[in-house]
Amino acid sequence: MTYWTPLHSKLHQTLRCGRSLLPPGAKILVAVSGGQDSLCLGKLLLDLSSKWNWQIAIAHCDHQWSTDVGIAERVSSVARSWQLPYYLKVANMLDETEAAARKWRYQALVEIAREREFPYIVTGHTKSDRAETFLYNLIRGAGADGLAALSWKRLLTDEIALVRPILNIYRYETLEFCQQFDLPIWHDVVNENNKYARNRIRKDLIPYLQDNFNPQVENSLAQTAELLKADVEYLEEKAQQLLQTARSSNKLNRSELRNAPLAIQRRAIRQFLPLVMSKQPNFGQIEAVVGLVTAPNKSRTSSLPGGAIAEVAGEWIVFKNLSGE
Ligand SMILES: Nc1ncnc2c1ncn2[C@@H]1O[C@H](COP(=O)(O)OP(=O)(O)OP(=O)(O)O)[C@@H](O)[C@H]1O
Q1: How far is the CA of 319 from the centre of ligand 1 (A)?
Q2: What are phi and psi of 58, to 5 degrees?
Q3: 88 CA to middle of ligand 1, Å?
Q4: Mean of per-residue pLDDT scores for the chain
Q5: Would you say residue 268 has pLDDT above 90?
Q6: Averaged over 173-179, what is the pLDDT?
Q7: Ligand 1, closest atom to CA 30?
Q8: Annotated binding residue 141
Q9: Whose CA is nearest to atom 10 of ligand 1?
């Protein structure tokens, strides 16, 4: 019989509370790195699976880095002991950077989910991760969208959702849980390296804030992120509506934009720009176009990535390619 802990109850409650994160009968691919958070998540989902009638499998992504030796086999043996299917992707000559690893990992997980028809990929991101991501993005400069990062659920493709079911559980809780069940936690040495800003936030900044400002700072930051998430969703929807009325092929109507609040203008322009640019727009590029909403006729931006420029033509901002296309 499964020993039921407060974390089991917490997850069960979270899933029942109406966010429709993981419905009964779902096919769920659990991304397990071998660290404490994803092992805890895997065990919790395994124990809850009979109540929810889920089909679960474990996925691991092997970066083939020198620091990762042996971890794929360990995750594989955990999957075996849980009697769950195990799927492995192995990288080929991956750059040793966090960003490259993350990008490859999500691609690899989506590939497995596609091949094996899993509509849900779940990761072990915790409340502590959310607080750290909040600070990381705040320090680098972010709008509400960046601060609200790490949501409970988002679509990776039309058919595959990424779900983070333990976003209200702290990292110290996942550690206690793993110890209680004697799960073989793998300690990633990269997490100890102070070269990475994220590690310094976790090891130095958060404890400093806890000791000197607010013992509950992780909770407070995660709560702010949660509040902002709802604001962002609302504002994005309003911006989408504005874009529908203001856009006519590659033009934006200035009087429609002018009638909207600045926050919505910015978002509508940010939603539109990727259609005429080769990259995601940065703050400066969005502001340059926002400036054209009230600028004199014939004003223009400098060339945007991909070669297009935006120019005022009466009541319109027109996006055109200088090469004449
Ligand atoms: N090598 C891996 N194989 C499978 N899943 C992984 C692997 N590494 C990370 N994950 C999944 O991602 C979760 C978050 O891990 P981690 O915080 O190291 O990633 P991250 O790249 O910082 O994530 P994010 O950028 O989304 O915050 C883990 O709990 C686990 O579910």
Answers
A1: 39
A2: -105, 135
A3: 14
A4: 94
A5: yes
A6: 97
A7: 31
A8: no
A9: 33
Span 88-112, average pLDDT: 93
CA 243 to centroid of ligand 1, rounded, Å: 35
Least confident of 13-27, 29-43, 218-232, 234-248: 13-27
Summarize the confidence of residues 31-57 as an average pLDDT. Answer: 97
Q: Nearest 5 degrees, angle CA 151-CA 156-CA 158?
A: 125
Distance 98 CA to ligand 1 centre (A): 10
What do you get for the CA distance between the two ends of the chain, in Å? 69
Residue nearest to atom 8 of ligand 1 (CA): 33
| ipTM of the shown complex | 0.93
Digit-coded pLDDT (tens) for 284-304: 999 999 999 999 999 999 988
126 lines ligand 1 (CB under 6 A): no
Torsion of CA 60, 64, 70, 76, to 10 degrees: 20
pLDDT over 70 at 323, yes or no: no
Encoding tokens for residue 324? 């004449």
Q: How confident is the model at residue 312 (pLDDT cuts 50, 70, 90)?
A: very high
Query: CA Rg, the chain, in Å?
Result: 23
CA gap 226, 55 in Å, rounded: 29
Binding site membership of 61 for ligand 1 (Cβ less than 6 Å): yes
Q: Which long-range contacts (CB under 8 A, 24 or more apart) does 62-67 make?
A: 62/88, 62/89, 62/90, 62/91, 63/91, 63/94, 63/101, 63/104, 63/105, 64/90, 64/91, 64/92, 64/93, 64/94, 65/94, 65/96, 67/188, 67/189, 67/190
- Residue 33 counted as an annotated binding residue: yes
Beta carbon of 42 within 6 Å of any ligand 1 atom:
no
- For residue range 107-145, what is the model confidence (pLDDT) as tens digits? 999 999 999 999 999 999 999 999 999 999 999 999 999
